[in-house]
Amino acid sequence: MRWVIGNGVEGEPASDKDKVLLAVAPHLVLDGAVGAAELTGAGEVVIVAHHSVREIVSRAAEERLDCGWDPVPVRVVTAADAFVAGEASAVVHWVDRGLATPTGRPPRLDPRPTLVQNVETLAHLALILRYGSNWFRSAGSPEEPGTTLITMAGAVRRPGVYEIETGTPVGELIELAGGAAAPLGALLIGGYSGTWAEPAAALPLPFSSAGLAAVGASPGAGMIAVLPRTACGLAETARITRYLARSSAGQCGPCVFGLDAIAGRLERLAVPDRLERLAAGRDGDLALVRRWLGQVRGACRHPEGTARMVASALRVFATEAGLHAGGQCSAMSTAAVLPVPVPREPGP
Amino acid sequence: MKVRLAVDLIACDGRGLCAELLPELITLDDWGYPMLARRQVPAVLRGEAAAAARLCPKLALRLEALEARGRR
Predict the structure, then answer these.
(1) Segment 250-289 of chain A within 8 Å of chain B by CB
(2) Which fold has domain A3-137?
(3) Were A316 and a residue from A168, A169, A196, A230 both cysteine, which residue would form a disulfide, CB within 3.0 to 4.6 Å?
(4) Per residue in A155-189, pLDDT tens?
(5) Interface pTM (ipTM) of the complex?
(6) Whole-model pTM over 0.90
(7) Rounded to whole angstroms, how far apart are CA atoms A109 and A92?
């Protein structure tokens, strides 16, 4: 083992947990990264930090250098600002060659094996090294011990990052974030390539891999986005899917063409009053989307993750799709709820 | 030794030769990129599979030994 890379890229547009962790406790992450380097015999630690917190992490690394704290050198690299830049092989590619694209092979630098861990995992490791595994296991469940950071986004009164015991019920997490700011419509669990779920089904479930499996979801990137009933789930899904399609690294044909095609049909399905759909046939759009969901794939999991999210939207918003077919929409506002970065204009 | 097919989708350009040479195992998706009906190559198709891999103009199709490959 030669390198330890701390992944603090956090390309998820609505997620803040890694940025908050790096800003609030940079030394905890560095302790964990250096600990991982010592355990694996790595010669260097590289922290890839989101640009908004990079200076904080750099300062922490300088403080350690000044007092000769670490047995291995620690380097801090500004992360590329893109959704797929956080994929493990893309992180290594970025550190190695300055290209933030997935490589589809087991990631390694130098070319010896490279350990890539999310910065939160490294913080957990630092705490285990300090206080022992029994202490760590005193929170959470036996199968999924410890605490975890989650970003609560969307229609909650106090959106933000919270540290919770793994397995805390989803409903309690919404209360922790100040409660719902509007009647609940749907929950997007795990990030933008996560899973849409009905509130009634998801609220009692423990926020853990085992618990969320009941609605086909997983903790994923540690995020719950709350959609109010006043918003249109199909419109939100179409916007997010377009963003994810645009976020393709552009390397694999089925991802480039497939996600674009799916986003295009979802955009039509999201608009309830487009007359042309009467000619095109709404069922045709739905059938095509379903067909393409089984065809998108690539060297990394970006296309499949997007397809999983869209498939869950077609389940959860099936009633809404029926309304749209009749020219109606249950939404009371067309304003976008979940944030999506504005595309950069192509340069001259 | 058992072998299986693997497509490097980063290298693949959707030329479609593989699906013509090995229709028993490879079909094309709606955008012309190969989909593997099943990854493991039956013994009777070993020769055809090897030819398809050799003739891929982008060197994107390859045969891998099933046992030798580690977990991803």
Answers:
(1) 251-255, 257-258, 261
(2) Rossmann fold (3.40.50)
(3) A196
(4) 999 999 999 999 999 999 999 999 999 999 999 99
(5) 0.90
(6) yes
(7) 7
